[in-house]
Amino acid sequence: MITPLKSKSKEGQQILRNLNERFQLADPKCQEIVSEIITQVRSRGDEAVLEYTRKFDAPEMSIANLRASEAEMAAAYGQVDEAILASIRLAKERIWQFHEREMEESWMMTREDGTITGRMVRPVASAGLYVPGGQGGKTPLVSSVLMNGIPAAIAGVKKRVMMTPPSADGSVHPALLVAAQEIGISEVYKTGSAWAIAALAFGTATIPRVDVIVGPGNQFVAEAKRQVMGRVRIDMIAGPSEVLIIADDQAKAASCAADMLAQAEHDPQALAILLTTSSRVANETVIELERQLPLLSREEIARTSLTERGVIVICADVDEAVALANAIAIEHLELMVAEPFLLLGKVEHAGAIFLGDYSPEACGDYVAGPNHVLPTMGTARISSALGVETFLKKSSIIAYSKEAFLADAHHIQALANLEGLSAHARSVAVRLEGK
């Protein structure tokens, strides 16, 4: 399934080059389809949203049923197992505690001449949270509800709406409705894909326009977010999920294989990489992959991912592995080495970092606390996890005293005249004339 390669071999070098250049946008056909969907929703509103929803998800959907009713929301609690509810609440508590520390405060500073400058921090007015359907509603992605909705709540966003594709019968899995209510979301719309994103960006008679759109999705969702970006803020353009494991000789091959499979089961395009200093660990991991694959409910998806995209590279030492990992800038980085904290300071680019054998990436997906919406395709070099700041905007504050204005006036005029902006200079001169 995967042949381990040495980092310095010709094949290994080519694989590493390909990993460093893996960023890609949707193919032209997808871009064209999404553009047409956005045009239709923008011009026809609810009619277009309903048409797409009936065609691809729920044939009997109506405008009246597009929003989950109060009765549906209330009934959801009776349809969710108490053990699952307890897990949702634990995850909520952990995620909330973590993100509370991200909240920014407004601030001001003063100069001796009386000038006051500062920054006022305010939440956006509204946010749209996209939650994928999860195999036609069979596998509700409650973690996406929590990870996207909680930072918005902490930021103070007053209007939060959730979009999720309905099942064929027009329903939404009760666990999603419960998770939404647990974090204060009561407005849930049963529609998905690019038309849901377009509706959030431009608004319809039924679905409100929002300021920020966040949440994972397939290539059509990602492309729709890219096309509406600028009109609204988005969290990121996300590609397939990915993990990179750095393992030394003490690493357990069974754990390495299990964590590679945990990424591979997401999507045939998911990326699982092992960089190890040990030929033994590399070869035993290949054996473990074959042993563990038949145990998975998504064996076919995981096998395709590993066969087509899985990578195992043998490195000269841990420092080389870290250097390669920094170049790759992975979404999830696992340090499965004897002293992971000694490597932490050398990591420059990663969406999230997991230290030690007992910190599998799955911890971060659900209950550890940090957000699992992370940069992919090498964008960890320039961007960060979804957080409270995604839902905040900052306004600069400037207040001059007369004394301060007079002291700075000639500097302002000099710079304005240098740039050829005489009206700027004149706005200062007018005040000087009237002093």
Give an overview in words.
- With 435 residues, this protein is α/β, with parallel strands linked by helices.
- It has three domains: 5-23 and 239-368, Rossmann fold (3-Layer(aba) Sandwich); 28-234, 3-Layer(aba) Sandwich (Rossmann fold), CATH 3.40.50; 402-433, no CATH class.
- It contains 17 helices and 14 strands.
- It has helices at 10-20, 28-44, 46-56, 70-76, 82-100, 142-155, 174-182, 193-202, 219-228, 253-264, 279-292, 299-309, 318-328, 340-344, 361-366, 402-418, 422-433, and strands at 5-6, 107-110, 116-123, 126-130, 159-163, 187-189, 212-214, 233-234, 242-247, 271-276, 311-314, 330-336, 350-355, 392-399.
- The strands form three sheets. Strands 1-11-10-9-12-13 form a six-stranded parallel β-sheet, sandwiched between helices. A five-stranded parallel β-sheet has the order 6-5-4-7-8, with helices on both faces.
- Strand 5, helix 7 (174-182) and strand 6 form a beta-alpha-beta unit.
- It is globular, with a radius of gyration of 25 Å.
- The chain starts with a strand and ends with a helix.
- 41% of the residues are buried.
- The mean pLDDT is 96.
In summary, what is this structure?
With 435 residues, the chain is of the alpha/beta class. It folds into three domains: 5-23 and 239-368, Rossmann fold, CATH 3.40.50.1980; 28-234, Rossmann fold; 402-433, no CATH class.
